[in-house]
Amino acid sequence: MGKGFNGLTQINVEFTSRCSKACWHCGRRERDKLYGIDNYGDMSIDMIQMIALQVPEGVVIATHNNGESMLHPRFGEGVTVFKERGCFVYTVTNGKHLMEKYDQIVNNLDAVSISVIENDDKAEKKFQFETLREFIATKGDKKPFVTLRFVGNIENEEKYLELGLIVVRRTLHQPKGSVGYRKPATIPECGVCWDFMTRLAIDRFCNVSCCVRFDPEGELRLGNLYDITLEQCWNSEKRIKMRELHTSGRRKEIPYCGEKCEFWGVPTSD
Q1: Do the Cβ atoms of 178 and 224 come closer than 8 Å?
Q2: What is the pTM of this model?
Q3: Tens of pLDDT along 199-223?
Q4: Do β-strands 199-202 and 10-13 pair in parallel, antiparallel, or remain unpaired?
Q5: What is the separation of C-alpha 254 from the centre of its chain, rounded to a whole number of angstroms?
């Protein structure tokens, strides 16, 4: 593999690890509660700017990882930094902060996907829908375009469908990670995980990983941006070795990919 970012299409940048919901299926919060880990916080705007200088121009940037990115106090500024690099910037959100961050989102963020969760708290679901409806009515035809991300079976989904938005359906997996899917994960014809081949993820501590799967032990980490560059992570010996195993049909020889992940980079509808 040569230098550069050959094949990289998307980077998840964790603006913040804080969240404003307690979703029943969230493996991270469940695990952190069990082990007494609550070291949540925001990535500094200086670090966001530093990352933006390293990403390939035009790459897709997702501002989320394991947190609600709109909680970042300078969310809009962080989005703008990547927009100035020609990036397509989007986020997956619980939707609670759409009006609170309206001025930072509209005509700035390219797309926003609202997660609607199976068996969600009724009060939370009601507030989410009312906020979403207000946001859509207020922004009109301005960016971002909005998608609905149905996670599992959604009760009374008709009221959401009446909004006329793109609907993205996702099947549920177990809280502990991308395993035990309700419906078997889709495998691409090439037999190689597209997430591994095309993505990177950066957590709020600047640890760079092969993909955005839940990885509490850091088995997929390639390095930290305080020590090495993003390009060095992409071309690291560890990633090259894992890439060779993936591309030769030997994914199962990678402990994490073989035992702790059933995802192949192709989202599956419920």
Answers
A1: no
A2: 0.95
A3: 999 999 999 999 999 998 999 999 9
A4: parallel
A5: 22
